[in-house]
Design goal:
The chain is of the alpha+beta class and 437 residues long. The protein has a domain of 167 residues. The protein contains nine helices and twelve strands. The strands form two sheets. A seven-stranded mixed barrel has the order 1-2-3-4-5-7-6. It has a five-stranded antiparallel β-sheet with strand order 9-10-8-11-12. A hairpin with a 2-residue loop joins strand 6 and strand 7. Helix 2 packs antiparallel against helix 8, helix 4 packs across helix 7 and helix 8 runs antiparallel to helix 9. It is globular, with a radius of gyration of 27 Å. It starts with a helix and ends with a helix.
Length: 437
């Protein structure tokens, strides 16, 4: 073979090798790696990344007359933390038929106490704004578990009370049973997340509008400012900034200055003078916020976590929305919190606000004028029980925690017993508040 012929043959063989390598690489691009994670981009996911049908298998957990949310993550990836957003798809199912298209979204873990339970809460974000279960369109939603609340309804009835009191904004929510990667996970509350938006907290979305949460459980990667004005020496109260995202140092300084100035003002309140509280805070909204938290004795709301307020630069502070009631209504691990007597929320900011005579009088009058709305919570409990009783059977069959006792778990012999405890607690709480007049 001449050298010319050998070079041509070698070039031909090299071409074949390159072609073979490219074929192997393309095949690998559409498969999953050994650890189960996909190596393709979200837009080029292989057809077998998701099942052909999202229909839930309800042989063990029968249809309970409420919607079923079915979610599959790409290649059934596990949701391991509260930071990593996993590509996924979702479909709503009724008894026999799908009630929505298959929708694109991401999912990650969420919550503090709930993330540490066997039945976890999740944050979902749709690719496009979606109306879901009849609630207004948005991208962001929370799927909240009720693992430590064996009535399965404390969040629901508290949000309903806030809405009945006509609070400026209350997160809308609907019950649904959740299936994740084919596994039935029980009864959840699909809830609007707290954010600025036309259908959410309706304030301007710009660098002069803020959503803030008192949050001692903040993480190091979150936006937080501090105030020591009302704290003992050496301590600081953390305020987590939810909106705007990625705030500049100048914005954080503006928020911190406003909080510190407000707290300095609170220290000047004197019961013997007109303190002009309404110049600093929306009095009506703060009283609504106070009474929802006080009535329920919500341990998450004593200015440690889950206390939200909004502030638009140049305007007054607006308390709310209310959030997180799974440990309220006598469901805490400490008996003194579960007792139906005593004022519970008159701490931190409210400790000073109630020193203002006019504020205290308005608060007392508010209870008298709206007492029927608080007693109406008992009707909400009954309505809710009828709505979710079949789903509750499925839920406790799945998790077997109804009779279980633990640090955050009260044992009950039946679901009816768990609901009766809640109703009796509410009745006694109403009676104690009435007796304070």
């Amino acid at each position: 073979m001449s050298r010319v012929g050998w070079k041509s043959h070698a070039a031909y063989m090299l071409f074949l090798c390159i072609a073979l390598a490219m074929t192997v690489l393309c095949a690998c691009d559409d498969s999953t790696s050994a650890n189960g994670s996909t190596t393709s981009s979200p837009n080029s996911a292989s057809k077998n990344a998701y099942p052909e049908s999202f229909k839930p298998n309800d042989k063990e957990y029968p249809y309970a007359n409420i919607p079923r949310i079915v979610i599959y993550t790409e290649n059934k990836q596990k949701i391991k933390d509260r930071e990593t957003e996993i590509p996924a798809k979702l479909q709503i199912w009724g008894k026999k038929e799908a009630e929505s298209e298959i929708l694109d979204l991401t999912i990650r873990g969420r919550g503090n106490l709930s993330w540490g339970t066997p039945n976890k809460s999740y944050k979902i974000k749709f690719a496009k704004k979606q109306s879901i279960l009849g609630m207004p369109k948005d991208k962001d939603w929370a799927l909240i578990t009720n693992y430590v609340d064996k009535s399965l309804m404390r969040n629901y009835i508290a949000y309903n009370l806030s809405a009945v009191l006509d609070a400026y904004y209350t997160p809308k929510c609907k019950f649904a049973e959740l299936y994740l990667n084919g596994d039935y996970l029980g009864l959840y509350l699909l809830t609007e997340t707290i954010e600025i938006g036309k259908n959410r907290l309706n304030i301007p979305k710009n660098d002069s509008s803020y959503i803030v949460e008192v949050d001692v459980k903040y993480r190091d990667d979150e936006q937080v400012v501090f105030s020591d004005v009302l704290m003992n020496e050496g301590n600081k109260k953390p305020f987590r900034i939810h909106d705007p995202k990625n705030a500049t140092e100048a914005i954080l300084d503006t928020i911190q200055t406003q909080i510190q100035n407000f707290e300095k003002y609170l220290k000047t309140i004197n019961s013997q003078k007109d303190n002009k509280v309404e110049e600093w805070i929306d009095v009506e909204e703060s009283i609504k916020h106070y009474w929802v938290q006080e009535f329920t004795k919500n341990p998450d709301a004593v200015f440690n976590t889950s206390v939200y307020f909004s502030w638009v630069k140049g305007e007054r502070i607006n308390m709310g929305p209310v959030w997180d009631f799974d440990l309220a209504f006598g469901n805490h691990k400490h008996d003194y919190v579960n007792e139906t007597d005593n004022w519970y929320m008159r701490k931190y900011w409210y400790n000073y606000l109630f020193k203002d005579r006019q504020y205290k009088n308005k608060s007392n009058e508010y209870w008298k004028l709206n007492r029927d709305k608080f007693t109406g919570v008992l009707d909400s409990v009954e309505t809710c029980k009828k709505l979710i009783k079949k789903a509750a059977q499925n839920n406790f069959k799945r998790w077997k925690n109804l009779e279980k006792e633990g640090e955050w778990l009260k044992p009950y012999g039946s679901y009816d017993e768990a609901v009766d405890y809640l109703k009796n607690w509410i009745k006694q709480r109403i009676q104690w508040i009435d007796d304070q007049e």
